[in-house]
Amino acid sequence: MELSAALKVALLSSLLLSAVKSAEDFNDTLNLRQKSHVAGLCAQLIEPAGFPCSEHNAQTKDGFVLGLQRVSSSSGILRRQMGPPVLLIHGLFMAGDAWFLDTPNQSLGFILANRGFDVWVGNVRGTRWCHGHISLSEKDKKFWDWSWQEYALYDLQEMIRYVYTVTNSRVFVIGYSQGTIISLAAFTEPDTVQMVGAAALLCPITYLNHMTARLPLRLVKMHLTQVLLAVGIHELNFKSDWGTRIMEMMCDRHVDCGDLLSSITGKNCCFNSSRIDFYLEYEPHPSSTKNLNHLFQSMLCSLCSTLALHILSSFSQGLSLTYYHPAKEKRK
């Protein structure tokens, strides 16, 4: 159902006021990011757990400076016998820290490192572990003028190329959620797929018109991303003042924001709710309004599933792909 004109005006007014407030808070947000950049993901989260870690930068063709981390086993023996490189690609509103937020025997990044893999952690543009742009400021509209398509064509391709060049070995890619759709898109490029040995896709997505979760559907019906773009909000940062206000508007009797993850993805058997305060110290990370708008469009696309299958069939020959969705509790 379309929003009434009065409600649209009220929403626009609220967002405009919030945008002004968020501009006042910009310096605080920028200082927080600069502090994170100084410390780095290695120093903040990985090295304190006893794992050697080094920071790396990779510049995309369109000028973004991405942050990557290389993680080794906590065992000296395994460090001397390092296995093949594995690149971890996070999901929407996440970053590389998502692979290390639980204990070493529960976090995939730590588990792979202790199994002898050469673990590389990817962070897409806009997240806090990246380092901005060579010429654009975060205040610039163009800084946020991208979606998951640019993640695939620029960010992931550059990260794969960087890891391949450093290790001189084909890369194993593990993507989660949004990390799977950008992986599938990147693999359509012959030069990229030649550098990939295999891929494991966790909670894979290629289209979203089958979704039934209440919160995303509610946001789509409210035309939220279109309203945000119309009033000039191009950065989606739900830790900002206006981001908090938007969530308060959403969290009415129709959506249980006390269990926000389930409102988006459905029930999760394995979510450790006792650590949610710790998770929220790192998540969510910023993204662009254009990116969310692109994903919302796929929720409305009746032809997306057919197109996705056509794309998959066009490039999957010769590349080993493993899909896993916890709700189905089996590999395909």
Automatic annotation (TrEMBL):
Coiled-coil segments on the chain, per record: none
A Pfam family per the record: Abhydro_lipase
Molecular function via GO: hydrolase activity
GO terms under biological process: lipid catabolic process
Keyword Methyltransferase: no
Recorded superkingdom: Eukaryota
Record's keyword annotation contains Hydrolase: yes
Keywords from the named record: Glycoprotein, Hydrolase, Lipid degradation, Lipid metabolism, Signal
Signal peptide: 1-22
Occurrences of domain Partial AB-hydrolase lipase (ranges): 43-101
Family that this chain belongs to: Belongs to the AB hydrolase superfamily. Lipase family.
PANTHER family: LYSOSOMAL ACID LIPASE-RELATED (PTHR11005)
Record protein name field: Triacylglycerol lipase 1
Native organism: Olea europaea subsp. europaea
